[in-house]
Design brief:
Cyclophilin; CT_A_B; globular; seven-stranded mixed barrel; 20 strands; alpha+beta
Length: about 325
């Protein structure tokens, strides 16, 4: 029992929270680009582990046929999903019957859409993660992107009657806001940059170039010049690090970043804004706002509290549903 892909998307992979503890051995962390959307999807299908592996679909989604009854949820970018040619909503549990077909199309907004299944995919861990590492061909489904004809097994078949609730639009507003603001804290080499560069990152608009991908977002905007040329020993990389090569054009390191890097780092995108950053489309403008470490921690703690409240509310909904149908 599982899912058969009748059409591959632009880039569809299996991802979870990431592969931690192996950067010293040369392995990238990988994992989903938008961790918040992954967690929302898993909550909606009543998975106890909010970091359970999901399908991450990029830009143009795939088509698939379900070969078992199951409950799924779609979160993130809106790819105009249709089940058996009828539009279905994002951000709510969807009851699927064996034989149903799901078609996803080009993302209207955002970049990444996520599909979670109640019970999860029946895929083995590689180095303690199911995430696909495309550059070395390990993890996920055969270490590669999903292709037409692939079959993904699931752990459990689940038969349910329709569910009539879902997430509020407020929870997903970070994807649809037209004015994108990305908060950052000062990087380890912040003082290596000129006063003009420090002013520019706070005051000027930036855009993603079409060359942006899961490894890194290349930016167009003001040149961020170094005060002087210094040699930097290579350091471990982090999701959201804003590094600046000699050209002065900033690069933000993303989920598939290399394990180490040697360019000076002017800033670090705060954890709370990484989901918003991941859903910015090439050509879309945004601006940075500097904040303190304490402010970044407060934002992270508040997001965790919101997620915990949401998880409690959804678990209560599933419990009520179970009582009503027993």
């Amino acid at each position: 029992m599982g899912i058969r892909f009748t059409k591959e998307g632009f880039l569809t992979t299996i991802q979870d929270d990431g592969r931690y503890g192996y950067q010293s051995l040369g392995f990238s962390t990988n994992g989903v680009m938008d961790q918040l959307a992954m967690k929302h999807a898993n909550l909606l299908v009543n998975n106890n582990n909010v970091k359970e592996a999901v399908l991450e679909m990029s830009i143009i989604g795939p088509s698939m046929t379900f070969e078992a009854d199951m409950v799924i949820a779609l979160t993130g970018a809106d790819m105009s999903p249709k089940v058996n040619h009828k539009p279905v909503p994002l951000n709510k549990p969807l009851v699927i019957q064996a034989g149903d077909r799901l078609d996803l199309h080009a993302a209207k907004n955002g970049v990444y859409t996520y599909l979670a299944i109640s019970g999860g995919f029946d895929i083995a861990d590689t180095l303690n993660s199911k995430s696909t590492a495309l550059h070395v061909g390990i993890g996920g489904f055969k270490g590669r992107a999903i292709q037409t004809g692939d079959y993904l097994p699931i752990r459990t078949s689940l038969k349910r009657t329709p569910v009539h609730w879902g997430l509020s639009s407020d929870v997903t507003s970070y994807i649809y806001d037209e004015k994108k603001v990305i908060h950052y804290i000062e990087g380890r080499q912040y003082d290596w940059f000129t006063d003009e560069a420090k002013a520019a990152i706070d005051e000027e608009l930036f855009q993603l170039t079409p060359q942006s991908n899961r490894m890194g977002f290349r930016l167009t905007g003001p040149m961020l010049e170094h005060k002087e040329t210094k040699q930097l020993l290579t350091e471990a990389t982090t999701f959201g690090t804003i590094q600046v090569p000699p050209s002065g054009e900033a690069i933000i390191l993303m989920a598939d970043r290399q394990p180490t890097g040697g360019y000076p780092k002017i800033g670090q995108v705060i954890q709370d804004d990484l989901p918003k950053l991941s859903q910015i489309r090439p050509g879309q403008t945004f601006h940075f706002v500097r904040c303190t470490l304490e402010e970044a921690q407060q934002k992270m703690l508040e997001k965790e509290r919101q997620l915990n409240r949401l998880q409690a509310a959804i678990q209560l909904k599933w419990k009520e549903w179970g009582h009503a149908h027993n």
